[in-house]
Structures are given as C-alpha cells and as structure tokens.
Amino acid sequence: MSNSILIQYQDELAIGDQAITAKEWKQLVNAKSTLVKFRGQ
Q1: Which of 17, 28, 33, 39 has the fewest CB atoms inside 10 Å of its own CB, making it the most exposed?
Q2: How far apart are CA 1 and CA 4, in angstroms?
Q3: Which stretches does DSSP call E strand in the chain?
Q4: What is the Cα–Cα distance from 41 to 38, expressed in whole angstroms?
Q5: 4 burial class (0-12, 13-18, 19+ CB within 10 angstroms)?
Q6: pTM beyond cutoff 0.85
C-alpha cells in the first residue's frame, strides 16, 4: 500500500435536480426573502 493517497471530489449546489452556480446561490441568499423566483419559476 502506498503512503500517498489521491482523493478527488467535486461538489455542487442544487435545487431539486437543477445544479446552480455559486453566483446564482449568492443572488438567492442576498434576496433576503423567504420566497424567491429561481430561473423564472
């Protein structure tokens, strides 16, 4: 067994089954509302 182990992962935010960008997430958070529209919905 090698002393070095490579770990690779990718994380993403999602609402339902739709991935959202970090920019979209910041916009939702900054809306400061309990109900927001996301991508027109």
Answers
A1: 17
A2: 9
A3: 13-15, 18-20
A4: 5
A5: exposed
A6: no
